Amino acid sequence: MAIKLSKSEVKAFSSNESVCIECSFSQYSQPCAAWAGVKSYHKEFYELEHGVSPDSRGTVESKYVLVEYRKDCSVCDRPTTFVKLKTNDLPEPDANKRGSLSKDLVDRLYRIQGEKDAFTGSTCKGRLEVDHRVPITHRSYSDSLPEAASDGDIDEEFMLLERNNNLIKRERCASCRKTNKRAGGTLKGDVKFWYEGSEEYKGSCEGCYFSNPEKWTTSLNNLISVSNY
Asked: 25 in helix, strand or coil?
């Protein structure tokens, strides 16, 4: 259900201050669902910080850029989703910054991957975000793809994720970059298996669950099948 913010509430979100979703929408039984409703109503007001808006499937002209991330909330006493709106005066993109996909490429990605979350396999039409399999923190080349890119190239470069799963992926990738230790499989990162390489990050994301959960799952199932033979 779409939820309209009052003028004062919009002003609060556009103050460049971080806002905890669960604190801000505590009057609702499901604060995160309420925030999704706010985004649905006000989607013309902002664009996501990276890539494609889950509601419009395209970057739009807007006054603000919406930034979402996870961090510890002192009030909730646990990690929650924080948001803020910052003025949309972004510098020109370079090789280390994410580019926006055209609507045609995004539509093709949805068709190729069946509008499903790459981690859970759930069909989430209208609630998916586009993310890179290999994050920009782990690469030194441009992420742009030509309009004539093959389906295979598009599938190899990008994945579709629900917002919460996308945030988890970013946390795992950031930790990997900081510690040079790759997370294990599943969203909890507790299955110590990599279909290529090991836990130590050596400059490649190949073999990591968070880069290619589909290939990771297939490889693990094949290993189990051979072991049980």
From this structure: coil
CB 51 within 8 A of CB 98: yes
What pLDDT digit, counting tens, does each position of 151-203 carry? 999 999 999 998 889 989 988 998 998 899 999 999 988 899 999 999 999 98
Q: Give the confidence band of 104 by pLDDT, cuts at 50, 70, 90.
A: confident
Residue type, 159: M
- Side-chain half-sphere exposure of 138, counting CA atoms within 13 A: 25
- Number of neighbours of residue 179 by Cβ within 10 angstroms: 12
In this prediction, residue 144 carries a pLDDT of 60
Unique residue bearing structure tokens 């990690």: 79
Separation of alpha carbons 221 and 206, rounded Å: 17
pLDDT of residue 29: 76
- What's the pLDDT score for residue 3? 53
Work out the burial of residue 51: count CB atoms within 10 Å of its CB; fewer than 13 is exposed, 13-18 middle, 19 or more buried.
Answer: buried
Judged on CB neighbours under 10 Å (0-12, 13-18, 19+), 164 is middle
Token reading at 6:
């009052």
Q: Are strands 64-73 and 46-48 parallel, antiparallel or unpaired?
A: parallel
Alpha helices in the chain (DSSP H): 7-13, 21-24, 31-41, 103-113, 151-157, 163-179, 213-227
